[in-house]
Amino acid sequence: MNSGGQPRRPGRLLVISGPSGVGKGTLIGKVLPHFKDAVLSRSATTRPRRSEEKQGREYYFLTLEEFEDRVKAGDFLEHVKYGANKYGTLRSEVVKQLDSGKSVLLEIELEGARNIRSRMPEAVLIFIAPPSVEELRLRLAGRNTEADVEREVRLERAGEELASQDEFDYIVVNRTVDQAANELEKVIKSTLEGGRS
Ligand code: 5GP
Predict the structure, then answer these.
(1) Is 107 in the pocket of ligand 1 (CB under 6 A)?
(2) What is the span of the domain harbouring residue 64?
């Protein structure tokens, strides 16, 4: 109930997943401003900060020790090892927002998406797919944010991720940014308007 005694419409949890390099971040950046009652959860990671990234903006960048302390404290809703690094969704980024009626988007990889599904079955899972594996390879190489070894790890993982699409409620193929952003916006809109529960 809110202060006026009206039942408040609870926020929804939306998980956006898909292989590294597929363009999840770009699409979310385009779509999120259209939803004033939705926020993007900021994850914690032990991955080194890229030069264009800021502490507390893209991620909370933690040392491994800090990350493990927060695991022990039960601060994560889910956390995984991905490549050489750890990533996790902080409860504090999600729970308060949902309670206050905001919807929360998580941009996370497959294992995290599966963990969220089993812990919070009401979450809506959206998969962003590349037009082809070859295109994904080109995009990851063009992005140039990873060392060769890390990029290969990500591509290997992409195979498993692409094979998991049936587990998702929606699939958006990222052929062009505008087309995919448009489709993603429609999916989020229908979810938030109660098109799917
Ligand atoms: P990047 O290092 O490129 O920022 O992220 C690598 C992968 O980790 C991406 O697929 C991204 O979606 C995923 N990721 C980011 N934050 C989290 C998180 O909190 N939990 C999980 N499971 N994956 C995450």
Answers:
(1) yes
(2) 13-192
31: Cβ below 6 Å to ligand 1? no
Give pLDDT tens digits for 75-105. Answer: 999 999 999 999 999 999 999 999 999 999 9
CATH value at residue 24: 3.40.50.300
Strands (E), the chain: 13-17, 38-40, 44-45, 60-61, 76-82, 85-90, 103-107, 124-129, 170-173
Is 70 exceeded by the pLDDT of residue 141?
yes
Q: CA separation (Å) from 174 to 26, 114, 127?
A: 11, 22, 10
In a domain, 7, yes or no: no
For residues 37 and 97, what is the distance between their CA atoms, to the nearest angstrom?
10
Mutate to test the pocket of ligand 1, among 41, 67, 109 (most ligand atoms within 8 A of CB): 109
CA 27 – CA 102 distance, rounded (Å)? 20
Task: Look at the chain and report how many structural domains it folds into.
Answer: 1
197 domain residue, yes or no: no
Task: Report how far residue 87's alpha carbon sits from residue 123's, in angstroms, rounded to the nearest whole number.
Answer: 19
Q: State if residue 161 touches ligand 1 by the CB under 6 angstroms criterion.
A: no
Predicted pLDDT at 150: 87
Residue 125 belongs to a domain: yes
- The answer as to whether 5 is a domain residue is no
